[in-house]
From TrEMBL:
Gene name for this UniProt entry: queC
Keywords for the protein's UniProt record, in alphabetical order: ATP-binding, Ligase, Metal-binding, Nucleotide-binding, Queuosine biosynthesis, Zinc
Cofactor: Zn(2+)
Function according to Swiss-Prot or TrEMBL: Catalyzes the ATP-dependent conversion of 7-carboxy-7-deazaguanine (CDG) to 7-cyano-7-deazaguanine (preQ(0)).
PANTHER family according to UniProt: 7-CYANO-7-DEAZAGUANINE SYNTHASE
Record's catalysed reaction(s): 7-carboxy-7-carbaguanine + NH4(+) + 2 ATP = 7-cyano-7-carbaguanine + 2 AMP + 2 diphosphate + 2 H(+)
Record's protein name: 7-cyano-7-deazaguanine synthase
Species the sequence originates in: Oceanisphaera ostreae
GO molecular function: ligase activity
Residue numbers binding ATP: C7, S8, G9, G10, F11, D12, S13, V14, T15, L16, A17
Residues involved in Zn(2+) binding: C185, C193, C196, C199
């Protein structure tokens, strides 16, 4: 496999980049400027590409992102705090984001002679992101096989789609990922906030995997309350 990895610069996609590089299966990274509220993830993706010595393609689709309104990731809306399973996390949905990015990625991969598109979606995304779920991944791969029929053979590699983020954390340790160089936080402040959905999930995953998290957070304790709240709802 010689894969084009969609890399946001976050913990999940950078871990998959290091996994693919260790398996000599990483051809290039593709990151998107879709008008998100900060560019720290793009900077982290660039650093990942430099560390792994692979090309980085930066695709500016901000004019498209500007039409995908109503999300806390692209509009002037407060980023919700809590666990991903909370109802308020739907404010972080950018409609069809993965579908749009994957469509572009398959075209780029085919044009560059790469035989796979890799994506680090995982089970924790299933709560609120429909274009991260197993059925979407399966059907999208089938659609692209038809779209590129007779042109190129490009597969879709999403190894974590049925796994939780703890497995990604274990891979981060296994493949010596420089976790502190990744950026996940939706807020985009000086430090990871420790309160948004992706921060909460990131801290929880590394705690469950029993690995050291070198990331400095503004709030190091909030995640515990967020997890307790979810557990209380389940048990009520």
């Amino acid at each position: 496999m010689n894969a084009l990895l969609i890399c946001s610069g976050g913990f999940d996609s950078v871990t998959l980049a290091y996994r693919l590089a260790a398996e000599n299966a990483l051809g290039a990274l593709l990151t998107f400027d879709y008008g998100q509220r900060h560019k720290k993830e793009i900077d982290a993706a660039r650093q990942c590409a430099e560390q792994l010595q692979v090309p980085l393609l930066v695709m500016d689709i901000s004019h498209i992102g500007a039409q995908l309104s109503g999300s806390a990731l692209t509009d002037d809306i407060d980023v919700p705090h809590g666990h991903y399973s909370e109802e308020n996390m739907k404010l972080t949905v950018v409609p069809n984001r993965n579908a749009i990015m994957l469509t572009i990625a398959f075209g780029v991969a085919a044009s560059r002679g790469l035989d796979a598109v890799a994506l680090a979606v995982h089970g924790g995304d299933h709560f609120i992101y429909p274009d991260c779920r197993p059925d979407f991944i399966r059907l999208f791969a089938q659609m692209q096989a038809q779209a590129l029929d007779g042109v190129a053979e490009v597969t879709l590699f999403a190894p974590y789609v049925n796994a939780d983020k703890t497995e990604i954390a274990r891979d981060a340790a296994r493949f010596n990922v420089p976790i502190g160089d990744t950026w996940s936080c939706y807020e985009g402040g000086e430090l990871h906030c420790g309160r948004c959905g992706t921060c909460v999930e990131r801290i929880e995953a590394m705690t469950l995997a029993d690995i050291i998290d070198p990331t400095p957070y503004q709030d190091t304790q909030y995640w515990k309350a967020a997890i307790s709240k979810v557990k209380a709802k389940v048990n009520s």
